[in-house]
Design a protein that fits this description.
Number of domains: 1
Structural class: alpha/beta
Radius of gyration: 15 Å
Distance between the termini: 38 Å
Strand order of the largest sheet: 1-3-2
Shape: globular
Number of helices: 4
Length: 113
């Protein structure tokens, strides 16, 4: 591609996840990152798996944020796994707000050891 740009199929996909306990600013960090990179013209998918945060979740700031179906921990885990498979197949950048505490993402990560 001209000017050193790579096609979407040639680029590596980036998944940005903020991890930590509840109420430490993970959502604020990811919110700022999405705003910054989208302002530069980057395409970034938003995955809001934080089911504990109801007032200032990424879905509050971005209407296109994907959310897991209503359900429990297992449903969240399966949804995140499906999102990861989709990202690998379609090669796009994404941010994941997994939430704090015991979440679908933490459950999924324990099974990947």
């Amino acid at each position: 591609m001209p000017d050193g740009h790579k096609s979407r199929m040639d680029q590596r996909s980036l998944l940005w996840i903020a991890l930590g306990r509840q109420r430490v600013g993970k959502t604020a960090l990811l919110n700022a990152a999405v705003q910054y990179f989208r302002a530069l013209g980057c395409h970034i998918e938003i995955w809001n798996a934080d089911q504990q945060n109801r007032t200032h979740s990424l879905s509050t700031f971005f209407a296109d944020a994907a959310v897991p179906p209503a359900g429990g921990l297992v449903d969240g885990k399966l949804w995140i796994e499906g999102q990861l498979v989709d990202q690998v197949n379609r090669r796009y950048h994404a941010v994941l707000d997994a939430g704090g505490g015991w979440t679908g993402f933490s459950s999924l990560s324990r099974t990947c050891r």
